[in-house]
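Batch job 17 of 40 flagged for manual review because the log was empty.
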Amino acid sequence: MHIKSLLVAGTAAVLTLTACTPVDEYSSNPNQRTKEGALTGAAIGAGLGILTGDGGKDKLDRAVVGAAIGGLAGGVIGHNLDRQAAELQAEINDSRIRIINEGNQLRVVMPEGLLFAVDSAAVMPSIQNDLYAVADNLNRYPNSRVEIIGHTDNTGSAAYNQDLSQRRAMAVSAVLRNAGVSGGRLVAYGRGEDVPVASNLTPEGRAQNRRVEILIIPTG
């Protein structure tokens, strides 16, 4: 029981440290998420090995094997995310589009002003090439599912904002699908004004809240 308690605590600590790593545009350390993925995978793998072992040496053997397998799997996912984020950053022309590597997924944040005119859900032609770049990247990395999420500020009614965010997410999804991304990988939905990332009390904050986010979530 003591070993199990220490293991659970240690694994939780690793996950906490990983989660606390600053999340920013892909620029500072291109191998950071690879290292974090390997560390987390090794901790979890070792934990499962100990918890499933029969006792004594068997637990130790399983811990070693579990750590190796978990570290390899976590490192592979982290490495792929590092590489995919770097390629996507290089391929997108507009520097206002943010690519954030969160360790277990990539988050592409596209401000509303780049994508749509005011109160419109028609994707502007000027952003099409960058959306095509996202589609090309997704097609090179097929082992992921993709969530396209629309967000608004709190100006106007909540019902209108929900509908607008939904239509905008669907419009971005349609561009990706038309560019060759399998529709089976894509899920589009709106969150309206429910998930602000800044204060709606200032014009600058409201501008940040009006956005579409593309989540790229590895599946294997």
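Reviewer: the log was empty due to a logging misconfiguration, but the result itself is present. The two ends are 33 Å apart (CA to CA). Unflagging and moving on to job 18.
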